[in-house]
Amino acid sequence: MKPIAKSSKLASVSYDIRGPVLDKARQMEEEGQKIIKLNIGNTAVFGLTPPDEIVQDMIRNLGDAGGYTDSKGLFAPRKAVVHYMQQKGVKGVTVDDVYLGNGASELIQMSINALVNDGDEILIPAPDFPLYTAVVGLSGGRPVHYRCDEGAGWLPDLADIESKITDRTRGIMVCNPNNPTGALYPNDLLLGIIELARRHQLVIFADEIYDKTLYDGNVHTAMASLADDVLFITFNGLSKNYRSCGYRAGWMVVSGEKRHARDYIEGLNMLASLRLCSNTPGQLAIQTALGGYQSIDDLVAPTGRLCRQRDLAYELLTQIPGVSVVKPKAALYMFPRLDPQMYPIADDQQFAYELLADEKVLIVQGTGFNWPEHDHFRLVFLPNVDDLREAIGRIERFLGGYRRRHSS
């Protein structure tokens, strides 16, 4: 029989957070081996569960959640998102500007699909959350990566962004707080990106899913609060701030210069209708989450679990010879660098395989986030302090052996 091949549109698509190294880890688990997973921000598996009031509210309303909703979502949670955007200083948002989705990921795909024609370009940070690059390619567009500067705390390089704008550039993706680096962008940088978007008439896609996961008293600024003459598409949701990954409850907000975007917004409405609606139980969690006690504040406080785990991971990693880390200001990740002189890694996916095979620790290699060099990896600091200490101890042991094997 003739082989059934996958679509050619998938040729350049990868998602190494759930890629080949994870497949190998699953195989090892099936063989009875225990793996410490530092590869994905899935809070529930680390005992970080949704606030009880969200769970109870969903349970109470589940009997009424069997039907389709409006394609954009139920009124009450969308209104709660409007109020949240007002609290963040974003003006001019109405219920009609809010779209609920099966997580922010679905809405990111929707927003790109509605905009990009074949050959159009979207500017994407490097390192990136790999979904951005994948969906631009699937839409027929060309992902163009702008460099974030590790020496400047992983902040985007404005000059590099501007140098990569062409007559095919349609938009710029901004991930703030950032995954995978944990960077938090200051207002002057955000204003610089907005000025580039203004000058070149670009859409700004602002992924702000970690906007409450902030350490050391840092404050997040909603990018859309800084201007009203540029079109902003802002993404957020419950997955991280409310430890509700599996509920797939996210939202997208259109704001700013909407008058000249009527045709694009019509496309968003069309795509929202095509998927009928997002899951209703997940929608039911949003209003309670946004209006209730913000337990994330306890977790990121100096004595809170997430802050203590971040501090421990940073301390242990930076004690390893040849390992340097920019301390995250936000989110759940760090993106350590391995000194190429001490760790001459030719293939960082193979490096991740070897770490998994030797020490039963699963990480994601830096190239999986479209970082061009083979000298970084992403680590999730969600495990409790005992497991984190064990995991980084194994990484240290592996790196010690790597140095000895590759010493000149």
From TrEMBL:
<comment type="similarity">
    <text>Belongs to the class-I pyridoxal-phosphate-dependent aminotransferase family.</text>
</comment>
<keyword id="KW-0808">Transferase</keyword>
<dbReference type="InterPro" id="IPR015422">
    <property type="entry name" value="PyrdxlP-dep_Trfase_small"/>
</dbReference>
<dbReference type="InterPro" id="IPR015424">
    <property type="entry name" value="PyrdxlP-dep_Trfase"/>
</dbReference>
<protein>
    <recommendedName>
        <fullName>alanine transaminase</fullName>
        <ecNumber>2.6.1.2</ecNumber>
    </recommendedName>
</protein>
<keyword id="KW-0663">Pyridoxal phosphate</keyword>
<keyword id="KW-0032">Aminotransferase</keyword>
<feature type="domain" description="Aminotransferase class I/classII large">
    <location>
        <begin position="34"/>
        <end position="395"/>
    </location>
</feature>
<dbReference type="InterPro" id="IPR015421">
    <property type="entry name" value="PyrdxlP-dep_Trfase_major"/>
</dbReference>
<dbReference type="InterPro" id="IPR051926">
    <property type="entry name" value="Ala_Aminotransferase"/>
</dbReference>
<dbReference type="InterPro" id="IPR004839">
    <property type="entry name" value="Aminotransferase_I/II_large"/>
</dbReference>
<dbReference type="GO" id="GO:0008483">
    <property type="term" value="F:transaminase activity"/>
</dbReference>
<dbReference type="Pfam" id="PF00155">
    <property type="entry name" value="Aminotran_1_2"/>
</dbReference>
